[in-house]
Amino acid sequence: MSRNNSHGKDVNIILANLKEIAEAVMYAAEGGTLEQVLQRIAYVTQQVSNARYTALGVPDGKGSLKYFKVVGVTEATIHEIGHPPVGRGLLGAIMHERETLRLDHMQTDPRSVGFPEHHPSMESLLGVPIQVGDHLFGMLYLCDRLDGKPFDEQDQWLVETLAGYAALAIAGVQLGEQQQRLVLLEERERVGMELHDGIIQSLYAIGMHLQLQRLSGEITLSGLDDAVRNLDAVIEDIRRYILNLRLSNYHQKSVRECLEDMMARLHVPETLDVTLDAPDSRPPLSPPVFEAVCQIAQEAVSNVIRHAGADRLCITVNHSDALFTLTVEDNGRGFDLNAPREGEGLGLRNIQQRARIHAGKVSINSTPGKGTRLTLTLPLA
Question: Full-prediction pTM beyond 0.70?
Answer without folding.
Answer: no
